[in-house]
Amino acid sequence: MSEQMNTQDVKSDDSGHFEVLIEKIIFRSRWILAGFYLLLVATLFLVAIKFVKEFAHFAMIFWYASEAEFVTGVLEIVDKTLLGNLLILIIFSGYENFVSVIGAAKNSTDRPKWMGGVDFAGLKLKLIGSIVALSGINLLAAFLEISTTNKENLGWMVGIHLTFVVTGLIFALSERYMHQERH
Question: Cα separations (Å) of 76 from 50, 71, 102?
Fold first, then answer.
């Protein structure tokens, strides 16, 4: 009897069809982001080219480099690697959080363990962590070549790095607080 009352309570009008159409358009609009992720893949190729260029430069100066130049060269290579890792993290997590599950990787034996397990909050934390790491590498490279580094620029680099660190800490603490509130 309650089923009969519920069907009688629902009014049949055309606004429901219009609402369903709008909701379908909104839901399917997430596929626009697929283009963004494809362009991030293209960006990853550009980072790979920059990586090869950086490595070739490092290989050419390797035998004659001072200790500071050697460490700076290694840091530049590590910097490009971390940037590539960051792009992969954003591409995979962003696509799976906002567009669709990556079906091609679902049953793959070499699927990364974190894939499919990074939510939006986790993605933001990993992003800020990566930015802090990249900033720290650039700052260390500047300190290693302190004699040729512009001191005003170095001051700005330290200030910006500290801003990233403090922002990351505040964000991590707020996420921790929100997580505790939910449980």
Answer: 10, 9, 32
CA dihedral of 74, 79, 81, 83, whole degrees rounded to 10 = -170
Q: Residue count of the chain, please give it.
A: 183
State CA 99 to chain mean position distance. 15
pTM for this prediction: 0.73
Q: Report whether 161 contacts 134 (CB < 8 A).
A: no
pLDDT of 40-98, one tens digit each? 999 999 999 999 999 999 999 999 998 888 998 999 999 999 999 999 989 988 898 88
5: region left, alpha or beta (phi > 0 left; psi from -120 to 50 alpha): alpha
Rounded to whole angstroms, the Cα distance separating 136 from 127 reads 14
Between helix 32-61 and helix 67-98 the angle, nearest 10°, is 170
pLDDT tens, residue by residue, 79-94 = 999 999 999 989 988 8
CA atoms within 13 A on the CB side of 59: 6
Q: Residues with Cβ < 8 Å from 40, sequence gap 6 or more?
A: 87, 90, 91
Collect all residues with Cβ–Cβ distance below 8 Å to 69 and sequence separation of at least 6. 61, 145
